[in-house]
Structures are given as structure tokens and as C-alpha cells.
Design a protein that fits this description.
By secondary structure, the protein is an all-alpha fold. The protein folds into two domains: about 140 residues; about 30 residues. Helices cover about 75% and strands about 0% of the residues. The longest helix is centred in the C-terminal third of the chain and has 24 residues.
Length: about 170
């Protein structure tokens, strides 16, 4: 077993454990309105405002928690680790951005940045597979001789749907 394999597996388990715990705790973390309901919005700090926003409903934190727990579990398997990392990276980017712009405590922000960095490193370890997938997704296929007609029909139908949908919203 090579050093890279040991390092990669160690990093996967490390980040999976922490993200699993954070994801599983989401309903508790935002469940009690966090003690800020009696303050005016103008009196809240950025972190209090964010906590109040996420604490308004349990549904959104639960959804975020389910995504985090699912991604963490996917990281544990060699076969699903890339899917887990790709699932978690947008969530962690969002968390880092919220932490930075709403001035969440430094420790939490550093943790989120570390976990995001580890996820990106895990994808770097899989760069060959990522390049293969990118090549498959961007490879030009044989041009369909009916592509112009297909484009026109699809554009007309999409435009019609747009106008009908907009009209129905006004009713």
C-alpha cells in the first residue's frame, strides 16, 4: 500500500466523520431559534441573523444535514468517494461563504475551510478519473443533420411555455 493511498483514505475518513457529525446535528443546531427571537433584526449580529434565518424552519437544516450525512457516507467507500466529494463540495462552499460573510466564529469558519480543502484534495487524488469524465462529457458527437430544425422547434416551444407560464402567473 502506497503512502498516497494511506493519506487519501485517512483524509476521507477524517472529513467524513466530521461532516457526518455536523450533518446529523443540523436539526439540533438550528432547532431552538437560538435564543434571538426577542431582538430586533437591526440588533442582531451577522451570525445571530444567519442562525435565526436557518432556525426559522427545521426543514432546510434537515435537508442540508441529510445531504451532509449522505455525502459523508459516500466518502467511506472507495467506489463512491468521488460522488460523495462532488455532493459535499457545493454544500461546503455555501457553508464557508455563510461563515465568512455572516462573521461566524473563527473556529467554525476554519473547520469549514479545512473540510472543503480536504474534499478538493480528494478530487485532486482522482484527477485522472475526473479528466476522463470531463473528456467524455465534452467530446463532440456526430452532428445531427436535423439539429437546426430541432433547435427551432425547441426554441419555439420553450418560448411558448415561457409566455404561457408568465401569463398564468399573472392570473
Amino acid at each position: 500500500m502506497t503512502f498516497q493511498k494511506i493519506l487519501e483514505r485517512t483524509l476521507r475518513y477524517f472529513v467524513a466523520f466530521f461532516i457526518f457529525v455536523y450533518g446529523a446535528a443540523k436539526p439540533l443546531q438550528f432547532g431552538n431559534k437560538n435564543g434571538f427571537p426577542d431582538k430586533l433584526v437591526s440588533e442582531l449580529t451577522g451570525m445571530e441573523l444567519m442562525w435565526s434565518f436557518f432556525g426559522y424552519t427545521k426543514t432546510l437544516p434537515i435537508i442540508i444535514g441529510i445531504i451532509q450525512v449522505s455525502g459523508a457516507l459516500l466518502l467511506l467507500s472507495q467506489r463512491t468517494k468521488i460522488i460523495g466529494a462532488l455532493l459535499l463540495i457545493p454544500v461546503m462552499i455555501n457553508i464557508v461563504l455563510f461563515d465568512v460573510f455572516y462573521q461566524v466564529k473563527t473556529g467554525a469558519t476554519v473547520n469549514a475551510i479545512v473540510f472543503l480543502s480536504v474534499l478538493l484534495i480528494l478530487l485532486i487524488f482522482e484527477h485522472r478519473k475526473m479528466i476522463q469524465v470531463f473528456k467524455i462529457m465534452t467530446t463532440k458527437t456526430k452532428k445531427d443533420p436535423n439539429r437546426i430544425i430541432l433547435f427551432i422547434i425547441s426554441a419555439l416551444l420553450a418560448s411558448t411555455l415561457f409566455f404561457v407560464y408568465t401569463y398564468l402567473q399573472r392570473q
